[in-house]
Amino acid sequence: MRMNILVTGGAGFIGSHLCDLLVSAGHHVLCLDNLFTGSRANIAHLLDRPNFEFIEHDIIAPYYADCRLDQIYNLACPASPVHYQLNAIRTIKANTIGVINVLGLAKKHGARVFQASTSEVYGDPQVHPQPESYRGNVNPTGPRACYDEGKRVAETLFFDYHRKHGLEIRVVRIFNTYGPRMAVDDGRVVSNFIIQALKNQDIAIYGDGTQTRAFCFVSDLVTGCEKMMSQENFVGPVNLGNPTELTVNEIADKILALTGSQSKKIFRPLPEDDPKRRRPDIRLAKETLAWEPKVGLEEGLKKTVEYFHQVVK
Ligand code: UDP
Known about the structure:
Blueprint: E1 4-8, H1 13-24, E2 28-33, H2 40-43, E3 52-56, E4 71-74, H3 81-86, H4 88-95, H5 97-109, E5 112-118, H6 145-165, E6 169-174, E7 177-178, H7 189-198, E8 203-206, E9 212-214, E10 216-217, H8 218-230, E11 238-240, E12 245-247, H9 248-259, E13 265-268, H10 283-289, H11 297-312
Parallel strand pairs: 1-2, 1-4, 2-3, 4-5, 5-6, 6-11, 7-10, 8-13
Antiparallel strand pairs: 9-12
Helix pairs in contact: 1-8, 4-5, 4-6, 5-6, 7-9, 7-11, 9-11
Bound molecules: uridine-5'-diphosphate (UDP).
């Protein structure tokens, strides 16, 4: 069935890949973005498609759609620590006022509404790997709180609109994701290391590099998002991520080997509240969505290196 689908944050890294998937499936896609971290370049190839529309708009202000909306994916929020801390109060507004605007829009249209939540709701986790039942270890007053607590209250709002107004919600918790179209100035580990390696600059490891993350390639991630949105009678939250865990040191070594770079590893102070370990428990996604990631780290990193090779040459 052809649907009218709104994607907020649609010009961002994950949002633009999701728009690709939905446009290819023949849906009419309205892509909303304030272009703070998203970019026109990410969606340039979609602009002449008849079933794609771009609207420059910030969800902190209410949005009124011209057509009936069947589904809304809410991805609008800066997601890298560097970007979400640049204007912490705006980040909180996106996750409170912005989310209330999105939920109000969904209520008006009777649309199913999807929230891109995050593994950051688990904070610096004391349970490893993290299942959805874990309630997290978040510092409410630290520099990451604007995002972590913002995303937590966004989940609360989604569940309250579901309970109070019967809204059809779908909540996913996205773990570290990488791939083409990550912003060059994103500041995240994979993009930073690849850019530094390609430029033969020092690879700056924060802390001693023993902290861990698990990385999901973006095509796997958006497939999981769409599967979750298509589920009947399952609201989540559900973890989406790749459970292959490695240390930041290991990521650096892999990227150095793949690029054949002359870069040296150097060590910088660890940012405050940087989680020590993170790996998704994806049993729920496997059981309920029949989803699991397919793209291995080597293959995904190669594609990402190719992309940055074009962008930063
Ligand atoms: N990191 C690093 N060097 C960088 C960027 C990040 O060592 O240039 C570390 C960071 O301290 C964290 C991990 O890599 O421990 C992942 O950071 P990222 O910002 O990608 O995402 P996070 O999972 O912290 O949101």
